[in-house]
Amino acid sequence: MFTGIIEEVGKLKDVKKENDLFTLKISCQKVLEGTKIGDSIATNGICLTVTELGSDFYKAEVMVETINSTTFKDLKSGKSLNLERALSPSKRLDGHIVQGHVDGVGEIINILKRGNEIVYRIKFISDNFKYIAQKGSIALDGISLTVSKVGENYFEVSIIPTTIKCTNLIDRKIGEKINIETDIIGRYVYNFINTKSENKITKNFLIENGF
User: Fold this and answer.
1) Do domains 8-85 and 104-194 have the same CATH topology?
2) What is the rounded distance in angstroms from the CA atom of residue 116 to the CA atom of residue 56?
3) Which class would CATH give 104-194?
4) Which residues of the chain register pLDDT less than 70?
5) For the structural domain made of 8-85, what CATH number should be given?
6) Residue boundaries of the structural domains of the chain
7) Residue 130 carries which DSSP code?
8) CB-based contact 16:22 (threshold 8 Å)
9) Whole-prediction pTM value?
10) Which element (helix H / strand E) includes 39?
11) Any residues with CB less than 8 A from the CB of 45 and at least 6 apart, and which?
């Protein structure tokens, strides 16, 4: 489990493929502190297990399914990657609950500067689009952000300059793909409300329970 607050931007040093398994070698520094083999590191929003550690890198193995269903399929050596170690019990939850399970890949279709903020418009054609709500949380390449607008097959996020500088968003351009993870709480609420069971939240239910 993660918070979506990026700790470091690392770089992909190498990708090796053996049968249906890819091994990524990622250069970094901060996220290595206190990390051991078997720990999880969110890498561009994808939860990966550390299989090898060096003084300035870690390696992680990735299955073909993960490669094909995320932006990893477009990865090349030298690519900047958002990195975050798994949440510890003593850490503040400054972002939102992020699982590192990507729901789909979106496309950056517009980047607009408005005063001190930058607005990214993301096209996302997926059945998971229904879980995106205005003012709700979303993770883009592992970055915890707030949805500022929802349109037809697209949504927007407004980002402060500090977030741009401290993540790989500083290198992102219109037309590029980005990993999307919708808010887990939103998914549970949506499924609860739309379930066919008798446990639906109705107006009468809310009135009866003092709302």
Assistant:
1) yes
2) 35
3) mainly beta
4) 196-203, 205, 209, 211
5) 2.40.30.20
6) 8-85, 104-194
7) G
8) yes
9) 0.87
10) none
11) 82, 98, 100, 102, 139, 140, 141, 142, 143, 179, 180, 181
